[in-house]
Amino acid sequence: MTKLKSAEARRITSDWAELFPEMSAWKPLRLLRRIGPVLQGISLERSGSGDQYYPTAHVHSLVQDFPVISISLAHYLNKPASMKEAVDVSRHADQYRAAASRLEERSTLPLRRRPELGEIVHAYREFAAAAQQGRLPAGIAELEDSILVPAAAGDRALAEESLSQVSDVSQRWSRSEAPMGWTDTQEWLDLLRAKADDPARLMAVVDEQIAQHKLEKVRTD
């Protein structure tokens, strides 16, 4: 099994960074920019064989402690995600510009213009709504981020709007259902409200995550 050589990874990263100068080349095959308590990026995930890579637009919330930069709200070159379209490393020079254009078309959030906070929160809500099946709790991380991200950013009205919507969603779950790791849905909602009421603590978590993941040089403007 061959691996993508470091020189090839650097070349691919550099080419994509030229197309999206609003983002920083954080690591090989990873472009990022920070919008307050959220990261937006493009991951150029390599295939197992190393002869292809999969462009993926995504976000990552910094308001909760997490060991890696996640690929949340992922958008690929085509649907469905189970049939992700790849770019051949051997044909990268011929394919990457067209791939970047298709990724822009597929992405819910703009990849060149900085998305507004409301756009990001709306994207979290839309993802969570699509994930809901029957009464079973789903899209929990996105529901939480739809509240905590605007709270950390100081937009109390937007956080309250999300809290109201999340509360309405939880009313459709049966009494025996609760988000994974919780035995009571109301306790989960109460903790979310308590966190939303403490934006300083949320931003402290953001600062801790920036340091942990070495994000200090990621573009923020």
What's the short version?
This protein has 221 residues and is of the alpha+beta class.
Describe how the helices and strands are arranged.
Layout (H helix, E strand, L loop, with lengths): L5 H14 L4 E4 L2 E6 L2 E9 L5 E10 L10 E4 L11 E2 L3 H15 L10 H15 L8 H13 L3 H15 L14 H12 L2 H14 L9
Antiparallel strand pairs: 1-2, 2-3, 3-4, 4-5, 4-6
Helix pairs in contact: 1-2, 3-4, 4-5, 4-6, 5-6
How far is the N terminus from the C terminus?
41 Å
Can you summarize the main beta sheet? 6 strands, antiparallel
Helix percent band: 40-55%
Pattern of helices and strands: HEEEEEEHHHHHH
Rg, please?
Answer: 19 Å
Overall 3D form: globular
DSSP strand content: 15-25%
Number of helices: 7
The structure class reads alpha+beta
Number of strands: 6
Whole-number mean pLDDT: 93
